[in-house]
Design a protein that fits this description.
Structural class: alpha+beta
Strand order of the largest sheet: 1-2-3-4-6-5
Number of strands: 6
Shape: elongated
Number of helices: 5
Helix content: 25-40%
Radius of gyration: 19 Å
Mean pLDDT: 88
Distance between the termini: 68 Å
Low-confidence stretches: none
């Protein structure tokens, strides 16, 4: 028997979901009074104000993968002249992340944090899981936003930007 013959199909039609996974996200957004748009059944876009920027979080249900994909972007375009250094910074940051990762979305040249919740076999997402996804995304963006700014607007090298954002202060002045 070949390897492909022993694999279990990801999408078992016998497993019916009680609720569309994006409905859970919509309920969470409504409970928190976040601004959101849902033009399609499989996608919702939420805006959340952070310390450094407004974060635009899109959740997309990928039926064939049985995954709820999160993409969190903010208003910072990467100019072509800084793209190489920004890719170095993104790679350095991603080495330190335990979950999710940053990308430069080439279609728009924006920084994006991405992660997914795999819900195979008809699993339902919980509100707590969805909150954890959003928390991971916004915390990663908040922590690294200034590093991205240093590279784009201050012309810093990736290593300098990373060192600046990894510097943690203790106490208050």
């Amino acid at each position: 028997m070949s390897r492909t013959e022993t694999m279990i199909p990801l999408n078992d039609p016998a497993e019916e979901r009680l609720e569309h996974p994006v409905d859970t996200i919509e309920r969470l957004a409504a409970l928190n009074e976040w601004s959101f748009e849902r033009d399609e059944d499989d996608e919702i876009c939420i805006s959340i104000k952070g310390t450094w920027s407004e974060y635009h979080i899109a959740f997309t249900w990928l039926e064939d993968l049985e995954a709820l994909h999160l993409a969190c972007a903010f208003d910072l375009k990467v100019p072509e002249r800084r793209k190489s250094e920004m890719l170095k910074l993104v790679a350095a940051i991603n080495e330190q992340l335990w979950i999710g990762h940053f990308d430069i979305w080439s279609k728009e040249d924006v920084i994006m944090f991405r992660h997914a919740l795999v819900l195979s076999g008809g699993m339902e997402p919980s509100v707590r899981q969805c909150e954890a996804l959003m928390k991971a995304a916004t915390e990663a963006c908040e922590k690294h936003y200034q590093g991205f700014q240093f590279v784009v607007w201050a012309g810093k090298k990736a290593e300098e930007a990373l060192n600046a954002i990894m510097f943690e202060t203790v106490g208050e002045a």
